[in-house]
């Protein structure tokens, strides 16, 4: 018997309590050595005015146990409520979201019988950093943050996962044909790290064609690693095309803590009816057992679950006449699974977890940073202004550009409008003035600051500035379209 591991659990909202009860019964029957601390999260907590859906005492439990089995919650719309998941991931540093998406053909109806894909999604950065602005009457902005350490951690996690789970290939999904600097960094780090895992095949795909292929021929993929937003979207697609979103579990892994949950939501439309499929949370609990080093119990539950699916004991969401044998509710699903503990699937591939296998790779070592020579070479100054064109804007600002600076380009929504703008370009109330050093010389912060003061004095409504740097001579900024 393994040492007892303390785990924090939350029953959540909607179908949460039903599927959590079923999962806990199964864990108990399988001999999992777990002790639980229960916390309240979700709707009832939000209603008490706690905007992130979790009470301070709940955080203490999570910091104590460092392992969280979480049922889905209902996120109230609007009203300043924050997503509990985004809060937990950020606060506990859960940088990796792992979603295995597997078909159970011919026992669960799917168009993709051979599918067995694991999505490894970056969980902390990208547009989910939640840095957004309204800058003018007409313009809003969301900041997409991609860092080298953030990229390195998730990519290395994907390769370590592939190695530990005997996977043959890791595919990165990016959009670096457009976002050359941010997605380009992720791509470069992917290539660097892939070189350290020569036994694992690697490839990179542009997210649009990658997502199309994933929906069409998922069997060509094995492990996919990608940025937060792309991962959010493609992991739901991947789970859905296996046959049901009700089937998949997921883990959120950090250096210190880990959270395990079903990928589906609280399904309020079927809550209290006793018909919810508990499989997502059951399979999440299997991932949790592997994480805490209880591989034997994980294997027993997973194999009994596979046997249930083969035996056609199905909940309503996957029930199909001609394939399924019995339609059961949540409680009977658990009872039938418990009856099968110790059995293995006959047709489907049995689950096998190596005892002592590391599922978390805690404390991924970052590579030593090679500091590049950073030089300040200019500044983009964003102006709120309605009407006119690039020429008129240039005429106003040119007399103010002094101290070795020159106005290099004006753009509107990224499209060059001066010099030589096209009269057809549609302009909105958000202009970017790019100022560089004469002859591309290095410039000083003071020269830029003085220009900003002169522009403010002249009545320009400056909504944002961004310094332009080169790193070892390479520009750390994109060119305007048409520049
Ligand atoms: P949902 O996943 O709850 O439901 C989508 C559809 O799938 C519904 O028809 C539902 O009945 C069905 N379904 C989902 N899980 C099922 C299961 N286990 N068995 C059988 N059928 C199942 O998505 P939604 O309706 O968009 O969201 C409902 C609520 O859940 C929202 O408040 C949302 O914010 C929240 N949500 C929470 C989480 C989470 O806590 N991790 C994740 C997603 C959505």
Automatic annotation (TrEMBL):
Regions that span the bilayer: none
UniProt domain Isopropylmalate dehydrogenase-like: residue ranges: 6-337
EC nos: 1.1.1.42
Necessary cofactors: Mg(2+); Mn(2+)
Record-level Gene Ontology MF annotations: isocitrate dehydrogenase (NAD+) activity; isocitrate dehydrogenase (NADP+) activity; magnesium ion binding; NAD binding
Signal peptide boundaries: none
Pfam families assigned: Iso_dh, Isocitrate_DH_C_bact
Catalytic activity: D-threo-isocitrate + NADP(+) = 2-oxoglutarate + CO2 + NADPH
GO biological process, one term: glyoxylate cycle
The keyword Transcription is assigned to this record: no
UniProt KW keywords: Glyoxylate bypass, Magnesium, Manganese, Metal-binding, NADP, Oxidoreductase, Tricarboxylic acid cycle
Classification via InterPro entries: IsoCit/isopropylmalate_DH_CS, Isocitrate_DH_bac-typ, Isocitrate_DH_TT1725_C, Isocitrate_DH_TT1725_C_sf, IsoPropMal-DH-like_dom
Function: Catalyzes the oxidative decarboxylation of isocitrate to 2-oxoglutarate and carbon dioxide with the concomitant reduction of NADP(+).
Assembly: Homodimer.
Family named by the database record: Belongs to the isocitrate and isopropylmalate dehydrogenases family.
NCBIfam families (alphabetical): ICDH_alpha, PRK09222.1
Protein's recorded name: Isocitrate dehydrogenase [NADP]
Native source species: Rhodospirillum centenum (strain ATCC 51521 / SW)
């Amino acid at each position: 018997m393994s040492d007892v591991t303390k785990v924090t659990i939350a029953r959540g909202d909607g179908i949460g309590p039903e599927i959590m009860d079923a999962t806990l019964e199964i864990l108990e029957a399988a001999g999992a050595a777990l002790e639980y601390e229960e916390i309240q999260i979700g709707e009832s907590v939000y209603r008490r005015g706690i905007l992130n859906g979790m009470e301070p005492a709940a955080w203490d439990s999570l910091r104590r146990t460092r392992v969280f089995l979480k049922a889905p919650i209902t996120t109230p719309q609007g009203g300043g409520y924050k997503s509990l998941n985004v809060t937990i991931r950020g606060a506990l540093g859960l940088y990796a979201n792992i979603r295995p998406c597997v078909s159970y053909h011919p026992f669960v109806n799917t168009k993709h019988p051979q599918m067995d894909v694991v999505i490894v999604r970056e969980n902390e950065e990208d547009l989910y950093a939640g840095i957004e602005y309204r800058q003018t009457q007409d313009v809003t902005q969301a900041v997409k943050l991609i860092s080298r350490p953030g990229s390195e951690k998730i990519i290395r996690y994907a390769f370590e996962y592939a190695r530990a789970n005997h996977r043959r290939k890791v595919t990165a999904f990016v959009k670096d044909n457009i976002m050359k600097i941010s997605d380009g960094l992720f791509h470069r780090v992917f290539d660097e790290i892939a070189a350290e895992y020569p036994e694992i095949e690697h490839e990179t795909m542009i997210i649009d064609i990658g997502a199309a292929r994933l929906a069409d021929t998922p069997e060509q993929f094995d492990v996919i690693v990608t940025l937060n937003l792309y991962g959010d979207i493609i992991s739901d697609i991947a789970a859905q095309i296996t046959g049901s979103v009700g089937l998949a579990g997921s883990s959120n892994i950090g250096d210190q803590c880990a959270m395990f949950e079903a990928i589906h939501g609280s399904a309020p439309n079927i809550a209290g009816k006793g018909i919810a499929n508990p499989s997502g949370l059951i399979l999440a609990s299997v991932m949790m057992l592997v994480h805490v080093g209880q591989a034997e119990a994980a294997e027993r539950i997973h194999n009994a679950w596979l046997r249930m699916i083969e035996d056609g004991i199905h909940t309503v969401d996957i029930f199909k006449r001609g394939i399924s044998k019995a339609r059961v509710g949540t409680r009977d699903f658990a009872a039938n699974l418990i009856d099968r503990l110790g059995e293995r699937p006959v047709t489907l591939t049995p689950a096998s977890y190596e005892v002592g296998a590391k599922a978390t790779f805690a404390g991924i070592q970052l590579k030593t940073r090679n500091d590049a020579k950073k030089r300040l070479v200019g500044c983009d100054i964003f102006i709120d202004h309605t009407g006119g064109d690039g020429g008129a804007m240039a005429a106003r600002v040119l007399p103010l550009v002094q101290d070795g600076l020159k106005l290099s380009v004006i753009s509107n929504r990224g499209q060059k409008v001066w010099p030589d703008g096209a009269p057809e370009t549609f302009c909105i109330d958000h202009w970017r003035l790019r100022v560089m050093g004469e002859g591309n010389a290095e410039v000083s912060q003071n020269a830029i600051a003085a220009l900003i003061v002169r522009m403010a004095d002249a009545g320009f409504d400056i909504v944002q500035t961004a310094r332009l740097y080169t790193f070892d001579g390479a520009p750390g900024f994109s060119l305007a379209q048409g520049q």
